[in-house]
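Re: that chain you flagged

S.,

Sorry for the slow reply, it's been a week of failed gels. I finally had a moment to sit down with the sequence you sent. For the record, here it is as I used it:
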Amino acid sequence: MVEFDALMANPYPLAVPLMLLGLALLGFALREGYSRPRHAGVGCLGMAFGLWLAASLVETPAERAVPVVEALVGEVCQGQIEAARRRLHPEAGWAVGDERSPRQGFSTLDRQITRAGRYRFSSWNILQIKGTTLRSDRVQVHLKVRVVDGGRPIASTWQIELRDGVNGWQVTDVLWRTLLGQRPPSRMP
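Prediction finished late last night. Pasting the structure tokens below so you have them in one place:
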């Protein structure tokens, strides 16, 4: 299932070679007057177009989870802590730095979100966001966020994992990767 989701998220590594092969076969067939390569070329072009069309119609788990992360960022930046808490899985964890960092439990994550909610940032932007499907019910989202606090722009990068369950997509892990390009402190100031 992950391979299908990866293909639907990015069909070009397969669709482009199929298209090029189809064009080459068509060009050869038209130049030399053969009918079989022409049929194969049309078939390759049809498969490339069909793959592209299917990819544009299918919504992958990562595409469904990214708006949840965008909403979570907006809620935290606006100080809507209760709304942000509803997006957290009861077993969600918090870590700082990289994947090898010790994972702390839900209470630490809840404290960090409450602390961040006190700031009431004047503005915020999600500069980059990319979701990756891990399984049909698990997604990892990498994002870079810029907030303005007291006129100072502050950039940070995050890795957020989500799980799809009975309550929709919920955050299971938050990894605070960088703050102003460096390893962040163990907790928000």
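What I noticed first: The radius of gyration is 22 Å.

Talk soon,
D.
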